[in-house]
Specification:
single chain; alpha/beta; Metallo-beta-lactamase, Chain A; 6-stranded mixed β-sheet; 14 helices
């Protein structure tokens, strides 16, 4: 019978990867993501795949975030030649994110090699190159929501809107083996039903095996209206203190949500800062993709528009800084600016340079508006670190650090329980994409509220469908 192997995002949030194999020899990989966070976890990105990449018939991708897609170029370099199936919007975002990742991989390897040569160590190779990424991108196959397609003989896939980011999907796989069909459903990253831009996740009713994310399995998010009020108070205090506001944000999803919220404050006449910088070339390009797929967004206040409006029209004080020179010019602002920059977990990107110029200032305010994996700089700030190392310097943390949970793009505990509870039957339930302690809290909540005993798989575990 068909077998499912749990290869990534098992008892941790990142590195999504699952292998589905049928008795007839079909092999489909569900996601192929980067491990992010602690050094030992990131080092796992360089390990060989636990399968023959050339034997994989197809990859089915839940969405474009790198912890779900970031190892695809490495997979292709290892011999994978099949199609990469994704939604139409994910296919477009994938090019943006993977090419940016490849550029970072090459630059980091170049810098590391220079440093190693000075101490007599051998050079390092990038995890993958831009050329390898360009080749992989030619293997994309876009699909619409609700349109079944055959990923491999005996495996039919249907994408459903997950409401997480543009193009994100709940993946339904109907697997026929020995004349019997079993349904596997992977939640992907389920969206927060209070997202300002996305539709609520699609509710499904039937599955035989269910893989459900548990990133926030231990708690609910704060009410979004209360969170917006808290953000307004933070911005008012920063304005009174005479400091800048730094917001590290994922370029796809979180940035667009933040621009919406800041635009709402601006429209209400409550935004005192007159300069909002979007300092992320990738986020700037992502905005254009969001505009092209405007019909997939949930924006009732803009329902009367016949054409998709530019995001700048919602927040007129927004300034985009695509070039390095424009980014460096922001440093002239010692106060009064809101700076949105990547990366979301503060592991790289332009936010580090803004930290260098602002983090030691008492009047500076840092707003953390997304999940921070263990081992990341963002997590260290959330946990109260008084000194951090960035750009090979030790910087004192005198800035005020704020955490806004209500803007999360992930479902909270109650939303996860509600989504799972819509299944008419009780499929075999496996919790994935979560830190172990949070998984255990959700596991107990499932027992107490739904009388449903979920399993927490072990890394590398294999089950029969």
């Amino acid at each position: 019978m068909a077998l499912l192997s749990f290869l990534g995002a098992i008892q941790q949030v990142t590195g999504s990867c699952y292998l589905l194999e049928t008795h007839d020899g079909a092999k489909v990989l569900l996601d192929c993501g980067l491990h992010q966070g602690r050094r030992q976890e990131e080092e796992g990105n360089r390990l060989p795949f636990p399968f023959d990449a050339a034997s994989i018939d197809a990859v089915v991708l839940s969405h474009a975030h790198l912890d779900h897609s970031g190892l695809l170029p490495k997979l292709a370099a290892a011999g994978f030649r099949g199609p990469v199936h994704a939604t139409e919007a994910t296919s477009e975002l994938l090019e943006l994110m993977l090419m940016d990742s490849a550029n970072i991989q090459e630059k980091d390897a170049e810098w590391e090699t220079r440093w190693r040569q000075r101490i007599g160590k051998p050079p390092v190779k990038p995890l993958y190159t831009r050329l390898e990424t360009e080749r992989l991108l030619q293997q994309r196959r876009p699909h619409g929501y609700g349109e079944p397609f055959e990923a491999a003989p005996g495996i039919t896939v249907t994408f459903h809107d997950a409401g997480h980011i543009l193009g994100s999907s709940i993946v339904q796989l109907d697997v026929t083996d020995f004349g019997r069909t079993r349904r596997l459903v992977f939640s992907g990253d389920l969206g927060n039903v209070h997202s300002p831009l996305m539709h609520a996740p699609t509710y499904l009713e039937q599955a035989d095996v269910l893989l459900m994310e548990s990133t926030y399995g231990d708690r609910d998010h704060r009410n979004p209206d209360e969170t917006l009020e808290e953000l307004s108070r933070i911005l008012d205090q920063a304005h009174a203190d005479g400091g800048n506001v730094l917001i590290p944000a994922f370029s796809v999803g979180r940035t667009q949500d933040l621009i919406y919220h800041l635009g709402k404050l601006y429209q209400q006449g409550r935004l005192k800062q007159q300069a909002v910088f979007l300092d992320s070339p990738m986020a700037i390009r992502a905005n254009d993709i969001y505009r092209r797929f405007f019909d997939q967004l949930d924006l009732p206040e803009l329902a009367g528009h016949t054409a998709a409006p530019k995001i700048e029209s919602w927040l007129p004080v927004l300034r985009t800084t695509p070039t390095p020179e424009e980014s460096m010019a922001i440093n002239r602002f010692k106060s009064g600016a809101i700076i949105i920059a990547g990366s979301g977990m503060c592991t790289g990107g332009r936010i580090l340079h803004h930290f260098k110029h602002n983090l030691w200032r008492q009047e500076c305010h840092v707003v953390i508006a997304g999940f921070q994996a263990a081992g990341t700089l963002g997590r260290a700030l959330v946990d109260g670190a008084r000194h951090v190392k960035l750009l090979h310097q030790r910087i004192g943390v005198n800035a005020q650090i704020h955490t806004l949970g209500g803007f999360s793009a992930h479902a909270g505990q109650s939303q996860l329980l509600d989504w799972a509870g819509r299944f008419a039957n009780r499929p075999e339930l496996y919790l994935v994409h979560g830190e172990l302690d949070k998984m255990k809290v959700l596991q107990q909540a499932l027992i107490e509220r739904l009388n449903w005993n979920a399993r927490i798989p072990e890394p590398g575990e294999r089950i029969a469908l």
